[in-house]
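Teaching note: in complex prediction, the entire set of molecules is handled at once rather than each chain in isolation. The prompt given to students was simply: 'Predict the structure of this complex.' The entities are:
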Amino acid sequence: EVQLVQSGAEVKKSGESLRISCKASGYTFISYWISWVRQMPGKGLEWLGKIDPNESYTDYSPSSQGHVTISADKSIATVYLQWSSLKASDTAIYYCARSGANSWHLDYWGQGSLVTVSS
Amino acid sequence: EIVLTQSPGTLSLSPGERVSLSCWASQSVSSSYLAWYQQRPGQAPRLLIYGASRRATGIPDRFGGSGSGTDFTLIINRLEPEDFAVYFCQQYGSFPWTFGQGTKVEIK
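The expected output is the structure of the full assembly:
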């Protein structure tokens, strides 16, 4: 069974750093991309970027480029999303999601990680 | 960047009704790389349709997708109580991947 299990809720202050995780199981980790998707309170979905875990090649949206970093550790089948300096506007639920093998739709999703940043 | 616009913003319907949701793209979506997701309150999104018209595994056949180029549609026949949710379209044909703003289907 394919599973993406995300790390728990975080409460941080503006300017602090943070790394959240997404642990994959039930499939060949290096064969599928993992994306991060943001959902701000009461709002829609926003794609932040994706990583190919095999070679750690990444693509970012223009709005997230330079503000977040996506990385992967093949040895433990885990993908990370990290910030070096959080802003209050980073308050959101963050989902990781897997891209299908033959097409890049997001076929499996993690349960979401709530990040709350206070100013 | 491809901008996706969904219409309408909210629909108020009764169980058993048929619903049609629209998604328009600002540029042609290559290879019909258009997906639809359902998000129930407090849950992660769930893939319904990919490739514009292909149902994902386990999705009931009352859900159907159609369209190509810049115009796409999600049809739900005979609304069930569990179908009242928010629906998002997404294009994954060119980076950055983008989502529509969502259509909420609520109980009338």
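Point out the following to students. The longest strand of chain B covers residues 19-25. The radius of gyration of chain B is 13 Å.
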